[in-house]
Amino acid sequence: MLPFSHLSCLFLVLCCLSSAVQSNLELSSSIYEVLKCHGLPMGLLPKGVKNFTLDNSGKFEVHLDQACNAKFENELHYETNVSGTLSYGQIGELAGISAQDLFLWFPVKEIRVDIPSTGLIYFDVGVVSKQFSLSSFETPRDCTAVQLTDQIQDGKHILEAVSKSLSGKLRYQLDQGEFVRTVL
Ligand SMILES: *[C@@H]1O[C@H](CO)[C@@H](O)[C@H](O)[C@H]1NC(C)=O
Ligand SMILES: *[C@@H]1O[C@H](CO)[C@@H](O)[C@H](O)[C@H]1NC(C)=O
Q1: Taking the CB of residue 14, how many other CB atoms lie within 10 A of it?
Q2: Residue 22 pLDDT exceeds 50
Q3: Which residue, 9, 30, 52, 145, could crosslink 37 as a Cys pair with Cβ 3.0–4.6 Å?
Q4: SUPFAM superfamilies of this UniProt entry (predicted)?
Q5: Does residue 112 belong to any structural domain of this protein?
Q6: 80 CB under 6 A from ligand 2?
Q7: Atom of ligand 2 nearest to the CA of 80
Q8: Separation between Cα atoms, residue 49 and residue 30, nearest integer Å
Q9: CA-nearest residue, atom 7 of ligand 2
Q10: What lines the ligand 1 site, CB under 6 Å?
Q11: Number of domains composing the chain
């Protein structure tokens, strides 16, 4: 006998598979259940989801009431439109979520969990990936209205600079390697 939550996931999967009942998906389930059925915690999206779309390939678009911040171990910022591609245990091509770190905001590009679960969740911001405890994302949080477009750009520029200097360093080491080989 399957626990109820598994049954409702099964139901959802059947809904996803059958385009004939695709229009029922939004009526019969919430985006939070969609996350859960992909092995992801419901609290990844805050309260205040107005509507969402999800296609058969896993591409989704979520519309929130307003751009807002929610407090976790680090603060997260959500834009009005959040989009990405869902697969089991992972959201790729993410747009519309930023994480605060060292007083800067970094756009999150990918979120994933380990399968089987290790109790950790990873936020990939491009050059680095940060890990948080999965349990803090169990339930959707309240989200306070905030706009912060400029600050997000700051974090993005710093990441690009770090990324450039890292690849610069790598090139330097490679050059050194070449040099050593030439000398030998
Ligand atoms: C969802 O909400 C957004 C923002 O209000 C609106 O532009 C969009 O048309 C809505 N989409 C659906 C499918 O209802
Ligand atoms: C969010 O999505 C809606 C519906 O697709 C669109 O009309 C609106 O311009 C988008 N808003 C932003 C800030 O991108």
Answers
A1: 10
A2: no
A3: 9
A4: At5g01610-like
A5: yes
A6: yes
A7: 13
A8: 9
A9: 81
A10: 50-51, 53, 63
A11: 1
